[in-house]
Recover the amino acids of this structure.
């Protein structure tokens, strides 16, 4: 159960605080899209818990101040100079990072992507937080469940180059005709995981589509921005905001009715799993199609033909459970 796993990770991290410091034998860099993002801060907690559980690992948590490929390239170059053992990256661009990550691998550094992927030639394996098709169906279902007669919805995404966002949107569009024929997707816009831009894009959607029934934001930054706009514009009960959200950041909008439900995988488990995978690669395990990797208490994953694997299905948060999970992440 994800709740128990999250609590276990938190307890391990707390226990590690009081343990005698161990000499780090491995340095694993957890490179995120941008710092100051609650989703990635939670993933870092899981990464530290895995490091404490395995022992002898130093986690270097880093990322640019704003979500850009250029910022991540600069950071990866610095990590190469530091000769870290592994880089686990959530990519802002699937292709732009390939040359610098290839250079890292040429230097003997193990490279994997997680959350948002890198093109195959730029990494050894990729950990998806969940199955792409299931996420695409889930984000539409979150809106459709509260539109029994159908209606107009729009998607507020992160950046136009984010691998995971684009894959989820494509899966959502594929599911619409057969699974949700009464749901009409009127627009897809991009807020670049920036609060100000996401706010402006949400406002633009409401102005352009006055009959809009729901805004779907498969990004923790965008979903908060959209819900705040609906709240500020007095549209609670008219426009439902849903998507992928951190319970701790989004609880207020379930409470005030701007949203009926959202979903997410456990980012603590995601960071935790990324460190276990990096540690396995450093230890010599080969990332080949069909290979199975243990990821601690989360379980195990098996790589597909693209050396990718999915961690777990999204979990839905609504008024019945948001309080409980908001205390965890």
């Amino acid at each position: 159960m994800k709740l128990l796993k999250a609590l276990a990770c938190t307890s391990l991290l707390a226990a590690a605080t009081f343990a005698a410091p161990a000499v780090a034998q491995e340095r694993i860099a957890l490179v995120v899209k941008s710092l100051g993002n609650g989703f990635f801060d939670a993933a870092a907690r899981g990464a530290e818990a895995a490091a404490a559980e395995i022992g002898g690992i130093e986690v270097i948590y880093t990322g640019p101040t704003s979500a850009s490929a250029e910022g991540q390239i600069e950071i990866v170059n610095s990590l190469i100079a530091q000769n870290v053992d592994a880089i686990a990256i959530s990519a802002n661009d699937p292709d732009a990072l390939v040359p610098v990550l290839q250079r890292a691998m040429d230097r003997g550094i193990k490279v994997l992507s997680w959350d948002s992927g890198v093109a195959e030639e730029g990494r050894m394996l990729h950990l998806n937080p969940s199955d792409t098709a299931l996420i695409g169906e889930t984000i539409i279902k979150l809106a459709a469940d509260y539109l029994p007669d159908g209606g107009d919805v729009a998607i507020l995404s992160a950046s136009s180059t984010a691998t995971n966002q684009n894959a989820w949107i494509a899966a959502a569009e594929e599911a619409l005709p057969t699974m949700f024929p009464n749901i009409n997707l009127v627009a897809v816009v991009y807020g670049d995981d920036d609060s100000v831009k996401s706010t402006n894009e949400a406002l633009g959607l409401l102005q352009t589509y006055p009959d809009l029934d729901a805004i779907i934001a498969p990004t923790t930054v965008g979903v908060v921005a959209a819900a705040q706009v609906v709240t500020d514009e007095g549209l609670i009960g008219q426009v439902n905001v849903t998507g992928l959200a951190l319970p701790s950041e989004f609880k207020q909008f379930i409470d005030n009715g701007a949203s009926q439900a959202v979903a997410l995988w456990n980012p603590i488990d995601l960071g935790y799993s990324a460190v276990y995978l990096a540690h396995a690669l450093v230890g010599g395990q080969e990332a080949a199609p069909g290979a199975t990797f243990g990821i601690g208490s989360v379980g195990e994953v098996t790589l597909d033909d693209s050396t990718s694997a999915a961690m777990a299905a999204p979990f839905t948060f609504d008024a019945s459970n948001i309080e409980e999970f908001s205390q965890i992440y």
